[in-house]
């Protein structure tokens, strides 16, 4: 249901499978679903593209209740942020 207080969701786009696995296994509090890790792995050298697709899908899922989203670019990949913003607008 609708939340009484606005929630700002943080979005950290995945860059490749190594990045996804590091976040999942080494960073407390971060869980990357198997489906997302497999998608990035299957993308190979296009892992960042898969990361953008996953991020856009996530925004679509949460936009009904989130008060907004902030995107944290990884490894100076600001182009990924632009792609996500373009896709969700």
Question: The biggest beta sheet, please?
Answer: 2 strands, parallel
Spatial sequence of strands, sheet with the most strands: 1-2
How many strand units?
A: 2
Helix content: 40-55%
Structural class comes to mainly alpha
Strand content: 5-15%
Radius of gyration of CA atoms, rounded to a whole number: 13 Å
Number of domains: 1
SSE string? EHHHEH
Whole-number average pLDDT? 93
Low-confidence stretches: none
SSE blueprint:
Elements: E1 8-11, H1 17-26, H2 34-43, H3 47-62, E2 68-71, H4 78-88
Parallel strand pairs: 1-2
Question: Could you characterize the architecture of this molecule?
Answer:
This protein has 89 residues and is mainly alpha-helical. It has helices at residues 17-26, 34-43, 47-62, 78-88, and strands at residues 8-11, 68-71. The protein has one domain. Helices cover 53% and strands 9% of the residues. α2 (34-43) packs antiparallel against α3 (47-62). The longest helix has 16 residues, at 47-62. The radius of gyration is 13 Å and the shape is globular.
């Amino acid at each position: 249901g609708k939340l009484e207080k606005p929630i700002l969701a943080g979005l950290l786009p995945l860059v490749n499978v190594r990045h996804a696995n590091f976040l999942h296994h080494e960073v407390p509090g971060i869980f990357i679903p198997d489906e997302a890790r497999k998608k990035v792995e299957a993308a190979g050298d296009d892992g960042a593209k898969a990361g953008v697709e996953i991020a856009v899908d996530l925004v679509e899922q949460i936009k009904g209740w989130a008060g907004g989203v902030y995107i944290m670019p990884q490894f100076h990949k600001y182009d990924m942020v632009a792609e996500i913003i373009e896709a969700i607008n």
